[in-house]
Design goal:
- This protein has 121 residues and is mainly β.
- It is built from no helices and 11 strands.
- The protein has strands at 3-7, 10-13, 18-25, 28-39, 46-52, 57-59, 67-72, 77-82, 91-101, 107-111, 115-120.
- The strands form 2 sheets. Strands 2, 4, 5, 6, 9, 10 and 11 form a 7-stranded mixed sheet that branches. Strands 1-3-8-7 form a 4-stranded antiparallel sheet, with no helix packed on it.
- Strand 5 (46-52) and strand 6 (57-59) form a beta hairpin.
- The protein is elongated, with a radius of gyration of 14 Å.
- The relative contact order is 0.33.
Length: 121
């Protein structure tokens, strides 16, 4: 059973910083990519950033220059360092991993339960 658990969310003032973490656990054979998505109230879930197993990254235009995604392959962990936070960054942040579980022939998407980030003005 593969499980993704996020941590690090919270309440911060505009201009502040937060660091999110996501740990993948269970019987995992290999990773394709890991990433962060977010969903604000009344809006669709959107991509924030992704990182491949080789370290290639991709960011939404709205967070470029402010957010940095990184990963520790040995710990099956992905991080999202967020600086210069804005009220419009307020959302539930979800971790997603495209991976192949042990005993499976296919890669599949797995999601965490989400962590709330609230940025006050």
């Amino acid at each position: 059973q593969v499980r993704l658990v996020e941590s690090g969310g919270g309440l911060v003032q505009a201009g502040g910083s937060l660091r999110l973490s996501c740990v993948a656990s269970g019987s995992i054979f290999s990773f394709n990519y890991m990433g962060w998505y977010r969903q604000a109230p009344g809006r669709q879930r959107e991509l924030v950033a992704t990182i491949t197993s080789s370290g290639s990254t991709n960011y939404a235009d709205s967070v470029k220059g402010r957010f940095t995604i990184s990963r520790d392959n040995a710990k099956n962990t992905v991080y999202l360092q967020m600086i210069s936070l804005k009220p419009e960054d307020t959302a539930v942040y979800y971790c997603k991993s495209n991976l192949r579980a042990s005993g499976s022939r296919w890669f599949a998407d797995y999601w965490g339960q989400g962590t709330q980030v609230t940025v006050s003005s």
